[in-house]
Design brief:
heterodimer; A: 395 residues; alpha+beta; 2 domains; three-stranded antiparallel sheet; B: 280 residues; alpha/beta; Diaminopimelate Epimerase, Chain A, domain 1; six-stranded mixed sheet; two-stranded antiparallel ribbon; flat
């Protein structure tokens, strides 16, 4: 497997994308380069990588075959590559498109996995550095008064990894029509009788609708990458973060990633492999065809909702008929930036996801039982006092 | 932030408490009352014109005597031996409706028992002889089921007794001193202790529930930290309406009779000053 490696044009050291400055900064000589500069320097290499698309096709064919026969092809889904910096042989999961060498820590992009039909249309570059993501997490923790003492410990944040996750974004233009029944209810009183008049209407609505940025994760449940012996604590921690996420149940991972939405897709830029340098990236595993029905269903739901919103003033609106005609549908395969933290606390591993663009954090937090019980007791006491005082007044 | 949330929770708990208190307090239906009269017709013996006429009559006698003249009809089905204690308790528990100087004619339509209760200075005017005189005057109407005229006669006789003044040598064997229970005595002497001993368990339960809700809400917030809707349809959609028609199909109208009695609840502490009474 061929790899892409971005090196500092000044000193030749590994070069990573800097989310804070939105450029490439060399950690060794301090040189800074614009995205355009690096892209133009590596344009030829990226093009060559794209020619290795055949490797990806073969891999996909293997997967399809395995799915059809029901065989376990875990071994086949692990791919080895040679680190361009130290020459070590590294194994990665089949879907990994960018990672770091477990031995020398060199950031590498497996460009062929993001070429041809697997080439993303766009990428939202990381806007939060690791430190900024930690700050976002700490800020969230600061608002929580019932966290156990010592939970928000910066040492734990070593176990984090910036990951680009593949998502499908869909825009659709359609003409939708809905027929519904609705009621208008009027009450009045005359003498000692109360009257209720219910008028029933049939409501017709037709509209040109545009729905944008409906998204769906494009990653399957999968086996994690084989464990190798990392040569540094930093690599060990990053590996641990991803290992847990890889083995995390798909539904939980899906929920975790969904909950750090929304992303500002207007900030998405045309895809370039260079943005992946220094991060881990997953290539898409789910094609358009597989989620077409799900997306169509959601589009219908949203369109119905928009039409129903125009039926204000009616009660008990029930849809009788709905039809639509799609004029235009646009699919965008986009990589989204997420910081993943696997937080160890009292022997329990808690994964957190932080939106790499906005800092929105999601994850289950532990509760300090004693602290919460104390506050619960204080609340109970206050309520009891109010109740007694109220009782003295009312009883 | 936390403080605001706590105050919201406390307010909610207090509201729950008030609702519970109002539901456990004795309910008393008073359709019409003032300091001179009170009519509560839970048994539904009077139609609206009778009700209005009786109101005028009682108000007239009330303003003449400066007493509150009360007519209470119920379907409580109270036995004759319990009429006195039952309706004296009703009086005590509804002191925000009843005045201190009050003559009260109670008709329990379910059991067929009736009682006249006097409170405050009216006790002195209703001697045993006068109470018997009142019973004799009411008897023909009560026997024929003419409750309206029985009430008119009750009002007339009350005014007559008032005008005649306090009897100089009247006997008051029917006079029953207020029989205060230990709870009532405690309530009068130490309201705080009364509330604690009588209702403390309920308030304790409410307080525990409030504490539990507080803890539960927080555990939920921590468990689902950051979980929220992920797709904003409003921001990500636009629509141009091409056709909008609302076609009328049909209408139907229903009606319900509004119940003439309305109920309210509440109660306030006050001295128990039961006077002479007679059940018949």
């Amino acid at each position: 497997m061929a790899t892409m490696e971005y090196k500092c044009p000044s000193c030749g050291a590994p070069l990573s994308f800097n989310p804070e400055k939105q450029n490439f900064s060399c950690e060794y000589c301090g040189s800074e380069f614009t995205v355009q500069h690096i892209q133009s320097l590596y344009a030829q290499s990226e093009k060559t990588e794209s020619l290795n698309e055949q490797e990806v096709r073969q891999s996909e064919e293997q997967r399809t075959k395995a799915q059809k026969t029901g065989e376990e092809f875990n071994e086949d889904f692990m791919v080895s590559y040679s680190c361009p910096s130290c020459g070590a042989e590294i194994m990665t999961a089949e879907s990994t498109a960018a990672t770091e060498c477990y031995y020398c820590g060199n950031p590498v992009v497996l460009g062929s996995r993001l070429s041809g039909e697997f080439k993303p249309d766009s990428v939202i570059p990381f806007a939060l550095t690791k430190d900024m993501a930690v700050d976002a997490f700490m800020k969230m923790c600061g608002k929580k008064k019932f966290l156990p003492a010592g939970f928000a410990n910066k040492k734990q944040f070593e176990k984090m990894q910036g990951v680009y996750f593949p998502y499908w974004y869909v825009d659709e233009k359609m003409q939708s029509s809905a027929v519904a029944k609705g009621k208008k209810v009027r009450h009045w009183t005359s003498g000692n009788r109360r009257y209720t008049e219910t008028s029933t209407y049939r409501l017709f609505r037709t509209g040109d609708i545009e729905i944008r940025n409906v998204f769906e994760e494009a990653l399957r449940d999968k086996q994690g990458a084989p464990t190798q012996n990392p040569q540094s604590t930093r690599q060990a921690n990053a590996q641990e973060a991803m290992k847990y996420l890889d083995n995390y149940h798909m539904q939980q991972r899906h929920e975790m990633l969904q909950c750090v939405h929304p992303f500002d897709v207007s900030k998405a830029v045309p895809f370039s492999m260079s943005y992946l340098s220094g991060f881990k990236a997953e290539k898409r595993e789910i094609g358009k065809q597989e989620i077409m029905d799900t997306i169509a269903e959601r589009m219908d739901t949203y369109a119905k909702q928009l039409l129903e919103d125009t039926m204000s003033g009616y009660q008990g609106v029930s849809l009788e008929n709905y039809s639509d005609r799609t004029f235009d549908q646009r699919w965008r395969y986009t990589l989204l930036p997420v910081w993943i933290i696997t937080y160890k606390f009292k022997g329990q591993i808690m994964p957190f996801a932080i939106n790499g663009q906005t800092g929105k954090t999601y994850g289950k937090l532990p509760v300090a039982g004693g602290k919460l019980a104390l506050w619960g007791a204080i609340v109970a006491l206050i309520v009891f006092i109010i109740a007694v005082l109220g009782g003295m007044f009312f009883l | 932030m936390i403080k605001t949330r706590i105050s919201v929770k406390i307010s909610a708990a207090a509201l729950v408490l008030l609702l519970l208190i109002s539901s456990v307090a004795t309910a008393f239906a008073a359709t019409d009352f003032s300091s001179y009269y009170l009519i509560s017709d839970d048994a539904g013996l009077f139609d609206s014109s009778s009700f209005n006429g009786l109101t005028e009559k009682l108000e007239s006698v009330g303003s003449h005597t400066s007493w509150q003249i009360a007519v209470v009809t119920t379907n409580d089905n109270v036995s004759s031996s319990n009429m006195d204690s039952h309706y004296n308790r009703l009086y005590d528990n509804n002191r925000n409706y009843f005045e201190s100087n009050c003559v009260m004619f109670v008709i329990d339509n379910a059991s067929g028992n009736r009682i006249i209760l006097t409170h405050g200075e009216t006790e002195s005017y209703f001697s045993d002889q006068r109470m018997n005189e009142m019973k004799s005057a009411l008897k023909p109407y009560l026997q024929s089921g003419d409750m309206l005229n029985a009430c008119y006669t009750f009002a007339d006789k009350t005014q007559e007794f008032y005008d005649a003044g306090i009897p100089s040598n009247g006997s008051y064997d029917n006079h029953v001193e207020g029989t205060e229970t230990a709870d009532q005595k405690l309530r009068k002497e130490n309201k705080f202790l009364y509330v604690l001993t009588k209702w403390g368990w309920l308030m304790g339960l409410i307080a525990l529930a409030a504490g539990g809700i507080f803890a539960g809400v927080n555990v939920g917030r921590y468990k689902f930290n950051g979980k929220s809707g992920t797709y904003n349809l409003k921001e990500n959609s636009s629509m141009k309406l091409l056709d909008t028609r609302d076609e009328f199909l049909y209408k139907n109208t229903t009606s319900t009779v509004i119940s003439s009695g309305s109920s309210s609840s509440g109660g306030s502490g006050g001295s128990s000053s039961h006077g002479s009474s007679g059940s018949f």
